[in-house]
């Protein structure tokens, strides 16, 4: 009877194969699947805001708010991995695997990263406006107050994940960067563990725990913020310039370091370096 999961080394090898497929993907597929990934992550964000709306203002313990917020948010990455789509933060892990094993090119990596980033933004903003704001779901209190607080916390910086209607202190650009490093380290591990599993339930469980962890901790995920902050923009809490300058730039760079360095480079070095024909046992 065969194993229901791959070894860490075989998982790294599978990432190389996925990168090779992404390298060859038609541009139209990249655009459509990236739009879907942005929308799927936004669904998770919308669910998390609806479930926790008003909890902080009602005096719920901050840890409990984070716990519940983190517990429901993973639905987005579950959809990304199982239904199939192009998520920028996951592609940060995949494409360097391909480049390091000569199965993908630098130009292919840039094409994939830029395309997925741009159209993740389109998908997330689509959900933020049409499904969260235009529907009225997040336009009435306590949900509007929660959405505006999260947007301000992420775009302007805040000490708490969800404060009672206000931003209590500012985060520096460097703090956002390092929070983004931690985020995509965990996100890419979630994707890596999902690839390791050969059954649906194993993939869901493997995704859920690391994503729950990064959200509850309060790390910065650039694609999730493509939903959270635009909702606040549409509600008048922050501006587009604050969105891009204060969050998108440091969060993008930090996510790249977290996924490409702490996951791809380390696993490539330990399992794939100099092993074109054979891969060492884990």
UniProtKB/TrEMBL annotation:
Membrane topology, record value: Multi-pass membrane protein
Keywords of this entry: Cell membrane, Membrane, Transmembrane, Transmembrane helix, Transport
Protein name from the UniProt record: Probable formate transporter
Family: Belongs to the FNT transporter (TC 1.A.16) family.
GO molecular function: high-affinity secondary active nitrite transmembrane transporter activity
NCBIfam families recorded: fnt
Major subcellular location class: membrane
Matches recorded under InterPro entries: Aquaporin-like, For/NO2_transpt, For/NO2_transpt_CS
Organism field: Methanobacterium paludis (strain DSM 25820 / JCM 18151 / SWAN1)
